[in-house]
Amino acid sequence: MVSSKVAIVLLQGDGEAGTPLVFDIESIQKLRSIGVAGILTGTLPSATQQNAFLSVPLRLMAEEALWLVEKQLGYLVHGDQMVHTAAGAIRAEGMKEARDELERSFEAQREFKRQQHHEKLRRLGVKDECRAEAETDYSRLLESSLFVETCDSSTLISQRQREFDKPEIQARLAQQLRTGCKSQGDFHVYKTLREQGYFLSPGSRFGGRFIAYPGDPLRYHSHMTVQPAMDYRKDPLDLLQVVSGGRLGTGVKKLWVVGGVKDNDSTEDESERVSFFSVEWAGFG
Amino acid sequence: MNELDEGSFIPSSLLDSDDDADELPQDWSHIAKLSRGQVVVPKRGEKDYEPDGTNAQEMLLHKAKTAMFDSLSDASRGSVVKNLIKAYYVPDLHKACVPHPKGSFMHTMGKVDRNGSCWLSFFEFVYLAERGTITPYYKRKERDDHNLDPLLGIQDLYMLFKSQKESDEFAVYAHLKRLGFIVMQSSQNSAGASSVEQEKDSAVQKLRLRFCQTFESLSGSVSNPFNLPFYHPLQCHLTRYCTSAQIYESLNKLIPYIAAPKTQEELQKDMCTKNDSAGKWEFSFDVWKPQSNFKKKTPGLPDFQVVVFNKNSQKENFPTYHEMRGLLKMLRCKMDFLSGQANEQPNPTKTEEAKGGAKKKSKANKKYPPHIEQQRRIKRGYRSFVLATMDDGLVSFIKITETDFGSENVWFKPNNAPVRKEKGKPKGSKFNGEVIESR
Amino acid sequence: MPKYVPNAKRYKYPLPIHPLDQLPAIKPYNPISWVYWLYCYTFSTNQLASKIHAEFTNGKHLTVTGPEDMRYLWENGFFGTAQLSRSEPTWKKRTMVRLGLSEGSTALEHITEKRRTERLKFKQERSRFEAIKLDMRQRGIAEDQILAEERAFLKSLREMEKVFEEEGDVHLREVDEELFGPDEQLMDMEVLELMPVEGIFLTFALPVLDITVEKLLENLTGGEPSYADIHELCLKYVAYHHYRSHGWCARSGIKFGCDFLLYRRGPPFQHADYGVKVLEACKPFDTTLFSGAARVLSGARKPFILCYVELQKPESEVLEFWRQGRLDKVFCSYKVGEASYRRWVPGKNRD
Amino acid sequence: MDNQHIVRLVRNNLVHQQLWNDVEEAKLVDTNLWVLRGLPSHKLSNDDPQLEHEWILPVELSQYKPGKLTLELMDKIFSELECRRVTLGIANDDGTVVYYFIYKGLHKPKRN
Fold it and tell me: What residues of chain A, 77 to 136, have a C-beta less than 8 Å from chain B?
């Protein structure tokens, strides 16, 4: 089942937790189908002058990445030296293979374009004898219009990155990622909501840690602004935040939600780990 | 196509991901039209409250997803052989070299060396590769032969970021670049300033510093003279206040405040006072508004400077006031509030300000009554910088502006109040601007 | 008709301590006028004829109960908040109207109440339509037809809005009987509450309340406070005094998630201009703390001011001043610095 | 947490400003907290099936001290009252009382 897991690249320097990214569009599609939307952050080549519709890489929240690893749906890949090593290890045969690959892609493009061209000429009713002449011109034109693609995923390290999918490596990377988060409790809040079917996205713009959607954000309005996790027993509810949160929620039609995380050592059921409360302005006073 | 013109048909609601209209963009069916250059008015409010189990809704969601993923996979990055611009990443320099540079990106990006090669910073390299403007390769140091330099994918490029901070900064860089802003890395920019100039500067700097220090110590003793009991019960028997202003003035001596520098002189004084409060903060980018006559070599002062901050990283926090002040002292950019002054007292060393303010001058120099002028001053504030906040992929920008309520007194003065004129009936001098009670 | 008092006259003075603006004119050619002026000057005082009575109820709540006193504090600088109204004490007037005791103008709360009922009705209509829509979808009716239905529905809502008519009924509840004293007159249940910072301002900075500084401090922070006990209150007061003393009318910003709202003159004249959050200068904060308040405020088009207050002396020294009741020395040990926080949208700042 | 001193304040506000009916005071056994119970003058939300008695928990917001209302305490209150929502009656230090619904668990926002 290794192949079906999504590779999550952790960008990190020395001793850093890492920024989780996904580069492969099929993987992104798969994540979406299991309730992980993430945020696209790269320039969309077909519309490079705007920020509303972006392309790969897909950036995940640390909590998302950790949940995917825990659920065996994804695995973490890291190594700032990996590209250097892979590039250095390439031998002449390797490069030849890459060039052959490019040539094959060109050949396919030529084939496709010629066919289209012929099709067009036929439709226009150009006679066969005139065609031969046009053909040489066209060939020159065609050669310069062949497309060299910059791929989303790496071909250099595609073999190497699979080797990261081993329990002990995953445990280490996950631990590293987890300790770099501002709040440890947020993971439990994320997990509980995710497993109840909510889609979550980063929520700082609405004054929260997460925004929760009842289904795919492409189709549904968000329902809640989820606050950073609280300690169930120790942290007092900040009433000033309740007041502004509740008012804000009324305006944007989102409930203001707090989750209290119970201690690690408690024997309670995992699903009882977080206790949620939803706050809403009562409409008077 | 020119980088600037391209953006003009895109509605402003699409420009920024953190649009007011809530949430994330949803309708990818527009993007196909967008890339064909048609004017697109994004539709809003087509979302549902929650899944209701109907097929119709399923269908709509399916359509939305298809539109999204089709747009993603149809938009492949790269260029045709004719326009191919190869850029080679040089690992030791963490930069990329374009041996045969061409194209409009060179107006605002890269540095051309003696051999005619263009050197791209790592951000420029990744950004241009993402757009499909250049084709990225990895330069293997032991070989001159490019035939053995492998082609890189987007994933490879990202994996070459040296730290989380660098990748966060790149996200902000790309966000601004996509909108047509001209963005330079701040450190890169100042390092580029000629060393001679810097040396000359430092001599002057030292002189100024000494002056400022004496000034500081003097003003320090003056600004806090308050050691008398403030509102002593006897005060009311000894002093008579004849106007509300006098009462206010006796009250507002109590709390010391930090006054913002408001003129060239005050700014220079502030800049050369000791600055150790910025901590680890420094500006990431110098940013210029989109402009067609930009000169890389003599860019002038940037329109604003940006710091980047990751709100979810354990290592980072929203800047404290001390850190903000430290950043303000380091600020080297155009300052709107000076534009009016530059006109009155031309200063040859600061022509940039005058130039930058020229466009706005007509607006800024328009005379308002003093109390309106005052409100505008308070509201606009003084020095400012932009704080780009990274929230797991969503970037939002906050403008932090030094404000100064302490230097202004806004109590109501009946004599300055706008006098409402009654038609055809000139007011008597005794009237004093107040409306007479009506029965 | 009740006598109309224009705002400019009613709120003539920005502070409860008035200047001596009734002094006679001096005529340079008339020495008698000089003497008369001097006489008036000597025997005039800025002091109130009698200080306003304030007391602590329910522990820390500093309240003013005299109807005249409540009015005075409201009209001279907008101090305090009436517990049964939004800001100005209007409860008695409103209740008279509600119980049909006298005729008068409709108070603000009455109008909002009515609007709320209307809004609720509209919303009921909306949810009824949502159900219809769901039903149509379940029956597989085409989307554009549903949209057309929706447009028609929205139109009908607007019609309904137009024809909404007034209704006024008076009924006395059982519990309302506690409002009447032995003399069968409506009692004023309303009291004016002062924020702790307002209490300090009207005791220490201006001699307005009949309460001593010592008693005030004891009630606010206890007899033997530590520095931690007084810290927050000091920060808030320093900021409050700063704005008040430069002429702003500062009132609680609680409903906007911040500490103070600043008005140029006061609530009857215009909406608040700024929202202020008081912070410690050297303490790091979580961004969530700001972004909520910033959104609420920007929704109301009010700039958001971060007011940083910094202690410049050792804590022990300040605490000692506090214990001695030397509030002047306490508060001038702090320094104020300000920055504004606003969302910046690059796309709107390109030219 | 102790809220006895503000019960009257919130009660008067409910009765005389918000015009609620049948407002009663009660003390909880588990937590020693005072709560109010009363009937609003009109339906508070369209999502409510009908006009019902509401539970109100008076709490004090002091800007100078952090509160003591933990989520654990909230859970105790809910389990003793056995209701779907509690209304927080927040007494501010400026004299106003504001009201916020607090629901146990995740609750959906109003549709409109």
Answer: 79-80, 82-84, 87-88, 90, 92, 94-95, 98-99, 102
